[in-house]
Amino acid sequence: MCGIVGAVAERNIAAILVEGLKRLEYRGYDSAGLALIDAHGALRRHRRPGKVSGLEQALAEEPLSGRVGIAHTRWATHGAPCERNAHPHFSGDDLALVHNGIIENHAPLRERLRGLGYTFTSDTDTEVVVHLIHHKLKELGDLTAALKSAVAELHGAYGLAVVSRHQPDRLLATRSGSPLVVGLGIGENFIASDQMALRQVTDRFMYLEEGDVAEIQRDRVQVWDAAGAPVTREVVQYHEGAEAADKGEYRHFMLKEIHEQPKVVQRTLEGRLGSDHVLAQAFGPQAAELFARVRNVQIVACGTSYHAGLVARYWLEGLAGIPCQVEVASEFRYRQVVVPADTLFVSISQSGETADTLAALRNAKARQGSGHAYLSSLAICNVGTSSLVRESDLTLLTQAGPEIGVASTKAFTTQLVSLLLLTLALGRVHGTLADGLEARLVDELRRLPSRLGEALAMDKTIEKVAEFFADKHHSLFLGRGTQYPVAMEGALKLKEISYIHAEAYPAGELKHGPLALVDADMPVITVAPNNELVEKLKSNLQEVRARGGELIVFADREADIENGEGTQVVAMPHIDDVLAPILYTVPLQLLSYHVAVLRGTDVDQPRNLAKSVTVE
Ligand code: G6P
């Protein structure tokens, strides 16, 4: 999605802004731009559709230089991804502004501003904001006052950064529903929508809260809260290794992140396991007492995180006997829901900034004090400083580290590990786990990183399977039980990065429709651990073969499924059935990756998709 970078320094900041934008490229975007106040006090800008490299090219042809400026990568919502819609937007020669989010009341504001004599040069909702601030500036004479007054009239979500040639020593920023972080340097300060953009210039950050307005100068940062009162926001030192945003020896971030899974699963388990049990305190000091009161769980998430929630339902109901509902956030947030008594609201998100998931949490919290309130909220999230974490009562951080590839991989497996920890913690408090189950699974979890390593070692075999796939246009993924959401995740990965149409079905549904599609051009991919459903699955596979369908089966070594004509079997290491969804995800990730590489798609930044969906 859109990205913001801004800087106030004593040196030329053009290169810093471009580097910042490059670090945000992983979020997905379709145009880029930057604006600076030059040595003559004039606002200058370059904007280009397409990649940041196009913007760099523009700068090479016509260099810009300045000490105060803002930059943006835009993911089009209102108006096509072309130069005139790209940010920064100007109001005359006076103001430049970049915006993340959506202004819902842009139409009436545009009418009003047109009536006041403003001319619009783009189709964006953003342009109304820069003219509105300009209009206020004429009345109030001060940029900070004008910004505060203008945002009071905005409906929707925004992270904004603005500069004025009349006050060329500062940049202004404000947020509501879209994240912004101030980066603190020595004699220079920065702003960005994601700290990742500023890691090359600082490791000290101040996270703006909802409604905050910040005035950023070279040597000071002033913040006012939503009520207009001056506030001090905590300064946080960032510790993640600088290598995180680097592909290292790998061709793509996605491949690097797939291979990081043993390490990050290990990290997600660290400090959370006792000798034979899960430490409930991992969820926060009040978790044990609160878990004892939980009688239901409602999970809400989007995309890959939603699939993690679907696996968790099998675990929560099957292992801990706790009723669980799972829903995509974009549906949940607009639906009248009946909340069973004592329901824990669980949101799952890699970024912690997904607009629909955040809105669902806020709706859930708005019920507090009513007869249909949730007991409490828990965020399972990969970003400790995110809005979702800050606004939830309890948090369990997945320790996946920054995930750059748009298609989620290590975030998913660490979410699954976290959800299994939640299942065990809840089940123990309620005494509903089978005898010895927790100790057995704790043991298995400790062995999981090395099992994941074994699955990764199958990379070359899977690359061969991918060759068979590369010219196909459609595919079906089948699974039963916890492997059904794994099949859904496998199909999502394939369509996201290879653009091959992929659908997932519970294997038992095959003959209720999808079997009609099966022929030699429709490969069927199946995940088959050796569990009590494997015999049923084998019958489903026969149904496919009988119709000439080509099968690719990831099967437990002991499942007794043989290679044969039209059937390619990839033997998987044996694993406890409860943990099988985590292990069987890995070959499906590798398969999608290799198919995408063979098809020559943009693996890390697939077309039309964004890493962090901060608008509805
Ligand atoms: C986007 C990403 C997906 C991700 C989904 C939810 O669609 O491309 O990879 O699963 O958002 O994101 P979240 O950060 O909430 O997990």
Automatic annotation (TrEMBL):
Functional summary from the UniProt entry: Catalyzes the first step in hexosamine metabolism, converting fructose-6P into glucosamine-6P using glutamine as a nitrogen source.
Keyword annotations from UniProtKB, A to Z: Aminotransferase, Cytoplasm, Glutamine amidotransferase, Repeat, Transferase
Entry superkingdom: Bacteria
Domain annotation SIS: ranges: 287-432, 465-606
Residue ranges annotated for the Glutamine amidotransferase type-2 domain, each copy included: 2-219
Swiss-Prot/TrEMBL GO biological process terms: amino sugar biosynthetic process; carbohydrate metabolic process; fructose 6-phosphate metabolic process; protein N-linked glycosylation; UDP-N-acetylglucosamine metabolic process
Gene3D superfamilies with a match to the protein in the record: Glucose-6-phosphate isomerase like protein, domain 1 (3.40.50.10490), Glutamine Phosphoribosylpyrophosphate, subunit 1, domain 1 (3.60.20.10)
Catalytic activity: D-fructose 6-phosphate + L-glutamine = D-glucosamine 6-phosphate + L-glutamate
HAMAP family: GlmS
Species of the source: Pseudomonas mangiferae
InterPro entries named in the record: GATase_2_dom, GFAT, GFAT_N, GlmS/AgaS_SIS, GlmS/FrlB_SIS, Ntn_hydrolases_N, SIS_dom, SIS_dom_sf
Catalytic residue list: C2 (nucleophile), K611 (for fru-6p isomerization activity)
Protein's gene: glmS
Molecular function in Gene Ontology: carbohydrate derivative binding; glutamine-fructose-6-phosphate transaminase (isomerizing) activity
The EC number(s) this enzyme carries: 2.6.1.16
The protein, known as: Glutamine--fructose-6-phosphate aminotransferase [isomerizing]
Record's GO cellular component terms: cytosol
Enzyme class: transferase
Compartment(s): Cytoplasm
Subunit structure: Homodimer.
Pfam families for this protein: GATase_6, SIS
